[in-house]
Amino acid sequence: MEAVSEKRTLDEETRNKVKFITFIIPQFARAYKMDKQDAYFYLQKYGGLDFLFKHWWALHTDDPFWAVRSLYEVCRNNGGLR
Q1: How many DSSP H helices and E strands does the chain contain?
Q2: Could you give the angle at the alpha carbon of 76 between the alpha carbons of 58 and 64, nearest 5°?
Q3: Using CA atoms, how far apart are residues 80 and 72, in angstroms rounded to an integer?
Q4: How would you label 33-72 residue by residue, b for 16+ Cβ within 10 Å and e otherwise?
Q5: Cα–Cα nearest to 19, from 47, 52, 66, 42
Q6: Rounded to whole angstroms, how far apart are CA atoms 60 and 57?
Q7: Quick one: which of 15, 23, 35, 70 has the most CB atoms within 10 Å?
Q8: Residue 47, SS3?
């Protein structure tokens, strides 16, 4: 039986979302002097990732400083200490 290889590609919106998320997490880590992995887990623990996934479109149109600041505020409001 011949294996069928299906080529899958992401739509443009998904590619843009992935690009922004992989850009902003290191920006957050740098701003708050964290390791990138620690920043990811911090954002996950305090609701920052949920906020990021839900509002990435609006956040990516703003200056990265304000996007990082918005993530900080969400995490702080959910118990984050940084």
Answers
A1: 4, 0
A2: 35
A3: 8
A4: ebeeeebbebbeebbbbebbeeebeebbeeeeeebbebbb
A5: 52
A6: 5
A7: 70
A8: coil
Q: What is the pLDDT of residue 81?
A: 84
Weakest-pLDDT range from 8-12, 16-20, 39-43, 53-57? 8-12
Q: Nearest 5°: phi and psi at 62?
A: -95, 170
Average pLDDT over residues 63-78: 97
pLDDT of 22-53, one tens digit each? 999 999 999 999 999 999 999 999 999 999 99
DSSP letter, residue 79 = T
